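Each record in this resource describes a single protein on a pair of labelled lines. With that in mind, the following record should read easily:

===
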Amino acid sequence: MSFARAMTPALQSMVDACLPGATLVEARPFHIDDAELHDDGTTKGAGYGEPLRLRVRERDGRESTLVFHTASPDVFGHDRRADRAAEMLLAWDTFAEVPRHVEALDVGALRRDGAGLLSLRDAGEFYLVTRYAPGRLYADELRRVARDAVATPDDLRHAEALARYLAVLHAEGLDGPARYVRAARDLVGSGEGIFGIIDGYPGDVPGAPPARLEALERAAVAWRWRLKSRTARLRRTHGDFHPFNVVLDDAGEPVLLDASRGCAGDPADDVCCMAINYVFFAVEHPAAWARAMGPLWRRFWHTYLDATGDAALLEVAAPFLAWRGLVVCNPAWYPRVSAEARDRVLGFVERALASPRFDPDDAEALFP
């Protein structure tokens, strides 16, 4: 049975809701280029979905035509279901703002069981409900370690537990080279990536003048081209593995919050996201490096690399380290960072970007 025929009852319900009293006469595929094939190379061969043409008889007897749009996965930023939902919602929000644009009558989703449609035309912002994770925020532990300038055996054990958690998570290899390329593109060019984070800097941030940020951005673009050939590194990731997204339960084991960005990419993303915080929490408390943050930094890196054997991670770490360094230096996220601390972190990531291979021991130079 064709998709159009299978969906006829649901489509009739949608038509009735949009055009009360109207009847669906016919539903058939609306091909990408409905004209006859051209021999001059102008026939369109790809689109972002396979719409249906709906012939409708309205209450007064007039016939009209509607188009039922769906979106298909592709490598143009629509590989995630959330991307495709965003495309439809953006169309609903904007079509009416364009003069002489076709009217959007409804927006919604196909039910998972294929039995009908769920309209979202009356929806506003979306929401998500999760369970609550009791425990201690890992960021609070790092604050205490930096303040006391000493890492206890439990603190070291927690850093090791986080590294081991990532080693297990990253053991799951994923298929799809395009997913890795997407992750590398998002790293640099997305609103939450390097371009977006840099755009969030005011023009007068001490230690981060526009010229410095532009140079960092250019270096990151060069790194994207180095990453694109590393598609075999695609793994399951958390996507936002920082101390404010980790809760330690009563046994000191991590509970994770807010997995992000498709949960697929390079393991260096998660590793650098957490690791940069051992440096960041120390730059305002330099005395804490020798006996506190430095040991945590080394324990985290050594545990992860020993558990995974992924020495190649150090060959791709630099742009991920730069991304996360730019986040912690951005006053929108951390408004109380001093100019000196910001300068030191950005200098650290600049040196990483300039090197073909990151060496975790380079962090020692920040705390002579």
